[in-house]
């Protein structure tokens, strides 16, 4: 078999792992009723002519289970950071104290918990789609290799390996979603 007929399964696995990493980051940003500095990670603030993450504009601390405190380093950006948090859809009302922005995390009600489980399910579905897209790319490469002369038994072997990898990653997404939904619904 020549090298140009080789299917790079490691590359496919790396790309599928990227979808899982992205899913974990999205899950970390979901508010579960406990304070977490990572819930601010997706929020970007217009600062110094470009969009900047909050953690690059100040120190993010979690002094107690239901409070996140941001100490903004530049006084001129306090209002922009506050506005970005208000408009982020987190459902948190920032309180200002000089350059400190305090974010009291309210207790989640049952309706909000159910909404968050749906958001988590949406994130998981995006990850599944990304994994399936990587699978499709792999299968397309296998079909191209077949037309370039790959033997049928090798084609079948690669197709089975790509499918097994896809099944494993989809199961990992489902397990992560199940865990996150249980965490959200926990009172």
From TrEMBL:
<dbReference type="GO" id="GO:0002184">
    <property type="term" value="P:cytoplasmic translational termination"/>
</dbReference>
<dbReference type="Pfam" id="PF01765">
    <property type="entry name" value="RRF"/>
</dbReference>
<keyword id="KW-0963">Cytoplasm</keyword>
<dbReference type="GO" id="GO:0043023">
    <property type="term" value="F:ribosomal large subunit binding"/>
</dbReference>
<dbReference type="InterPro" id="IPR036191">
    <property type="entry name" value="RRF_sf"/>
</dbReference>
<comment type="similarity">
    <text>Belongs to the RRF family.</text>
</comment>
<protein>
    <recommendedName>
        <fullName>Ribosome-recycling factor</fullName>
    </recommendedName>
</protein>
<keyword id="KW-0648">Protein biosynthesis</keyword>
<dbReference type="InterPro" id="IPR002661">
    <property type="entry name" value="Ribosome_recyc_fac"/>
</dbReference>
<dbReference type="GO" id="GO:0005829">
    <property type="term" value="C:cytosol"/>
</dbReference>
<dbReference type="InterPro" id="IPR023584">
    <property type="entry name" value="Ribosome_recyc_fac_dom"/>
</dbReference>
<comment type="function">
    <text>Responsible for the release of ribosomes from messenger RNA at the termination of protein biosynthesis. May increase the efficiency of translation by recycling ribosomes from one round of translation to another.</text>
</comment>
<feature type="domain" description="Ribosome recycling factor">
    <location>
        <begin position="24"/>
        <end position="185"/>
    </location>
</feature>
């Amino acid at each position: 078999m020549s090298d140009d007929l080789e299917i790079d399964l490691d590359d496919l696995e790396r790309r599928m792992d990227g979808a899982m990493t992205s899913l974990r980051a999205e899950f970390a940003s979901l508010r579960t009723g406990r304070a977490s500095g990572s819930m601010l990670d997706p929020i970007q603030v217009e600062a110094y002519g470009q969009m900047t993450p909050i953690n690059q504009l100040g120190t993010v601390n979690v002094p107690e289970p239901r409070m996140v405190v941001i100490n903004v380093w530049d006084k001129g950006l306090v209002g922009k950071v506050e506005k970005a948090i208000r408009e982020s859809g987190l459902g948190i009302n920032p309180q200002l104290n000089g350059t400190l922005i305090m974010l009291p995390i309210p207790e989640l009600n049952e309706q909000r918990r159910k909404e968050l489980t749906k958001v988590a399910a949406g994130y998981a579905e995006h990850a599944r789609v990304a994994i399936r897209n990587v699978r499709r790319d792999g299968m397309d490469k296998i079909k191209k290799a077949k037309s370039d002369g790959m033997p049928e038994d090798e084609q079948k072997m690669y197709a089975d390996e790509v499918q097994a990898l896809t099944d494993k990653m989809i199961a990992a997404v489902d397990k992560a979603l199940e865990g996150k939904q249980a965490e959200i619904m926990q009172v």
